[in-house]
Amino acid sequence: MRRAFTSALLAAALLLPMAAVAQPYPNRPVRIVVPFPPGGGSDSQTRAFGDAMAAQLGQRVIVDNRPGAGGNLGTDAVAKAPADGYTLLTGGPNIINTRYLIRDTPYQWERDLEPLGMMFSSVNVLVVHPSLPVRTVPEFIAYARANPGRLNFASAGAGGSIHLSGEMFMKMTGTQMVHVPYRGDALARADLTNGAVQLMFNTIATSIEPIRAGHWRGIATTGGARAAALPELPTIAEAGLPDYLVLSWMGLFAPKGVPDPVVARLRQAFDAVFADATNRAAFERLGVDVTPSSAADHLAFMRAQEATWAPILRTIEPQ
Questions:
Q1: Which of 67, 71, 264, 300 is close enough to 37 for a disulfide, judged by CB 3.0 to 4.6 Å?
Q2: Confidence of residue 205 (pLDDT cuts 50, 70, 90)
């Protein structure tokens, strides 16, 4: 009897690790890395998505801000994380573009990251400090041409849509402005308010309040149609640059190599989040368009974006 009891205990002990491995995903909290500081648009959008995702996964979703190097530090941390589905990333144009702008970028997005789906898109808005004597796009272009190299435009870091909006504007107008990258858009916004920089192509969600308060002057938006949040402002395209179009976007990523069943569970939760009308309304209150996609469409979109921007990015001296 004693020998049989001992054998049963041993068999149970041997089965414990197998039972642990067999537990369905997720069986512990999931971490989403934001490669920018707290307080910006990427942070607020990720936190709203993370709360909704937690309800679908039945586990806590922890938002982990890892700013630095134009988003490279946080992005690289995810690229090198275990491919088990417990470390994810939210990112946008910086994931594609920083390899053109920052020497020795430590990751390659197609090799190291798995696009899981597009989430949000939005337009930016050209805002200037009130001391700048311009109110329209033609006035701004004329002023910039008359003052080459004397205007500083802020961004949340090299390679993001805020930065790219300025680069495309300069290319299309033949103007010269100085790019001033910050460690996140909160710091850039503060310096625009105090006049340390003269302008910014900022996200619309974080521009509405400073414009309404008179801290900034809104000039025009970067999309293909007027923004519902700022309908009084024309698009840059309608104000004189008909081919101008820049969108900000955010997608969800995992390290390359996550097992198919884990990806399927993540996609199931992802689809449920965006199918919920309450969630979509909450996301829209952040000033973004809700644009979920399949993983395949996310990958195709990124490849198309790189093809669009690479010729412009190659003209910029890497940092």
A1: 67
A2: confident
